[in-house]
Amino acid sequence: MADFAVPPIRPFGIAFEASTGAVTRAGPVLTRKLADLEGLFQDGDAWQAVRTSDEVVYTVHSSPVPEVPRELPQSITTIYPGDVAGEFYMTKGHQHPDPQGEIYLGITGLGGLLLFDGSEYEWIDMAPGTSGYIPPHWAHRSVNVGSAEPYRFLAVYPGSAGHDYQWVLDHGMGARAKRLGDAFELVPFGRAPERSVGRAVTCGFAGM
């Protein structure tokens, strides 16, 4: 498997394949399956029933730029369509131990960027060509709200930011994205639906 480069790094070009999420020059590739997402879905029993499947929820293809100070790593995340008891497939979500901003750019499919600062949440609709800005101190998670197609996005972030996944398990994300007919709704953790988002859950590769 490809690894991160060792600084000092000479200038180089990076090619991103929109239809697969592959990166050239390639760095490490992370694969998250249902079994890797313990504690994320609201319906724990439903997750237990499917956790032994080999189904991939999302992958992260990184460039070789390392996560070290003064560097700017990039990656393409692909979240596949699906849900557990109506709650859409999503990334684990994380906070940055070294609070810094980050940029996401939608490439294919339809998704959402869920942000939480510990007291309130924000939701950004993501589609091909949409850029989502993540300010410092906001935990963030990406969700595929499409019915059939993968949602892919490019992330660019400071190499020293770090990833604190335990913060999300301890504090939650303020809301969950769940299927609602042809649309989706944002539901606060452990309570009845708070508000509906009237957008169809169909998506295509408009950016290809």
In short:
With 208 residues, the chain is mainly beta. 6% of the residues lie in helices and 36% in strands. The protein is built from two helices and 16 strands.
Label this structure with key terms.
three-stranded antiparallel beta sheet, mainly beta, Jelly Rolls, 208 residues
Question: Helices and strands in order, then pairings?
Answer:
Layout lengths: L14 E2 L6 E2 L4 E5 L10 H7 L5 E7 L11 E6 L3 E2 L2 E2 L13 E7 L2 E6 L4 E6 L4 E4 L4 E6 L6 E6 L9 H6 L4 E5 L2 E5 L7 E3 L11
Antiparallel strand pairs: 1-2, 3-4, 4-5, 5-13, 6-7, 8-11, 8-13, 9-10, 9-12, 14-15, 15-16
Q: Would you write up a description of this structure?
A:
The protein has 208 residues and is mostly beta strands. The chain has a single domain (15-197), classed as Jelly Rolls, CATH 2.60.120. It has two helices and 16 strands. The chain has helices at residues 44-50, 166-171, and strands at residues 15-16, 23-24, 29-33, 56-62, 74-79, 83-84, 87-88, 102-108, 111-116, 121-126, 131-134, 139-144, 151-156, 176-180, 183-187, 195-197. Strands 3-4-5-13-8-11 form a six-stranded antiparallel sheet, with no helix packed on it. The chain has a three-stranded antiparallel sheet with strand order 10-9-12, with no helix packed on it.
